Amino acid sequence: MLAGGLATRMGGGDKGFKNIGGRPIIERILETVRHQVDDIVINANGDPARFANLNLDVVADSVDGFVGPLAGILAGMDRFSVEYDWMLSVPTDTPFLPDDLVEKLFVPLKNNQAEIAIAHSGGFDHPVIGIWPTRLKDDLRAALVEEDIRKLKKWISRYRYQAVSWPDTPRDPFFNANRPEDLNIDLF
Fold this sequence. Notes:
There is one protein chain. The chain has a single domain (about 15-175), classed as Spore Coat Polysaccharide Biosynthesis Protein SpsA, Chain A (Alpha-Beta Complex). The strands form three sheets. A four-stranded mixed sheet has the order 5-7-6-8, with helices on both faces. It has a two-stranded antiparallel ribbon with strand order 1-2. The two termini are about 25 Å apart. The chain has five helices and eight strands, in the order E-E-H-E-E-H-E-H-E-E-H-H-E. The protein is globular, with a radius of gyration of 16 Å. The chain has helices at about 25-35, 70-80, 100-110, 135-145, 150-155, and strands at about 20, 25, 40-45, 55-60, 85-90, 115-120, 125-135, 160-165. About 25% of the residues lie in helices and about 20% in strands. It is of the alpha/beta class. Helix 2 (about 70-80) packs antiparallel against helix 4 (about 135-145).
């Protein structure tokens, strides 16, 4: 789970701890993702103690400076590459992730149609929500450190990737809470 953003539009702090419908966003995400993966870590910089109540490992970026979500994906790859061939990434500001996220994202990977799968809805790709082969960790580190690549789409365009679509009605499953007013979304 990527919790490394600065949340400037939200007024700072960890967006995952903001409430939607009376519950922290991060709890909603964990409830959805826990049954879809074998292991979860939180990527966050700063004091990891703020996540202590979640009983999850916290890994910081391994690349200096705030370089964005690719650094968080790399931190996850570093952590998981010994045990796992694949890794899911999700941000901590997406409270409505679908229950079939991993299942659907994994289809083009197991059919060898793609090396990376990312989410898509409402006419937009959501590259922070994706499944990544952990074997690409050295390539990603080189892209970040040596080539100064910061854009997810720029990096993944080097590989065969597929955007997997979900309907955005009645609610976009990849809605992300970026501003304080986003926390007042109608849960119907």
